[in-house]
Structure formats: structure tokens, C-alpha cells
Amino acid sequence: MWNRHQTEERGGLEKLAQYIIRAPLSQERLFYIPSSAVPDGLARVIYKGKNSSVRESFTALDWLARLVTHIPNKGEQIVRYYGYYSNKSRGMRTKTDIDIKTPVPVDSDITKKELRRIWARLIQKVYYTATLR
To answer: If we measure between CA atoms, which residue out of 50, 6, 60, 56 comes closest to residue 28?
Structure first.
């Protein structure tokens, strides 16, 4: 259920969501120099860190090697569920039909118009576009 304490932590939840959907690198901070523009003939990738004073230069193959480390192996579990959402807990609730009887929390203080506005703002934050206007 939404209570006042949880709504005050909305900023923290948004930061968590941004962290989850964030890519391991930023295309805006990436600059590619083709091999024809470099005297030694090796293509370069320059990556600017979060603070613009730090820049690293990699060969294209070194950059790809660093990028590939973020790809999970086949069958590797990258999302783990604990507590209420764990497989064991969900299975036990399904067997006892407790999941069906669990009431769904509804916040009656928020109108449908406000909900649409909140969703539009969140979609705009994720996709950088105003689609629901």
C-alpha cells in the first residue's frame, strides 16, 4: 500500500529504476576514430568518464573486449528474487492458494488523471519523448 513515507521516497525509487535500466556505457561519451584517421592504422575509441576531465583511449578490439564482459553467459542468472518474490515463496503460495486471496493495494487518493500524468512523466524520463500528450 502507498503511504506517505513511501511516496516521499519516490525520488529514491526513480534513481533505482534509472540504475537498473542504465546501459554499461553511454553513447554520448563515446567517440570513434576510424583507422584511416590514425597514423598507426589502428582504429581508436575514446571514452570520456563521468567527469569530463578523464578520457581513456582504447584500440577498437580492446574496447570490444571490455564491452563483452558485460554480456552474461548463456543460462547465467542475472536477476535474483528474494523473500516474497523468490521461486520457493511463490510456489508455496500457489500450492496453498494464498496468492489468490492476497488483497491488491489500491490508493484511492490518486485520480485517474493524476495517474496518467505520472505515467506520462515516467515514460518521458525513460524514452526522452512525450508520447501521451
So the answer is: 50
Give the residue among 59, 35, 56 at the shortest CA–CA distance from 47: 56
Taking Cα atoms as reference points, which of 49, 45, 51 lies closest to residue 33?
45
Segments forming the whole domain that contains residue 30: 26-71
| Dihedral angle sign, alpha carbons of residues 56, 60, 61, 65 | positive
Cα 25 to Cα 42: distance, rounded to the nearest angstrom: 22
Query: How far, in Å, CA of 34 to CA of 47, rounded?
Result: 14
Confidence of residue 5 (pLDDT cuts 50, 70, 90): very low
Query: 53 and 86 share a domain?
Result: no
**Structural domains of the chain, count:** 3
Judgement on whether residues 58 and 85 belong to the same structural domain of the protein: no
DSSP 32: E
- For residues 24 and 26, what is the distance between their CA atoms, to the nearest angstrom? 7
Query: pTM of the full predicted structure?
Result: 0.41
Question: Which cell numbers in the block locate residue 30?
Answer: 563515446
Q: Is 67 helix (H, G, I), strand (E, B) or coil?
A: helix
Task: Tell whether 32 and 49 lie within a shared domain.
Answer: yes
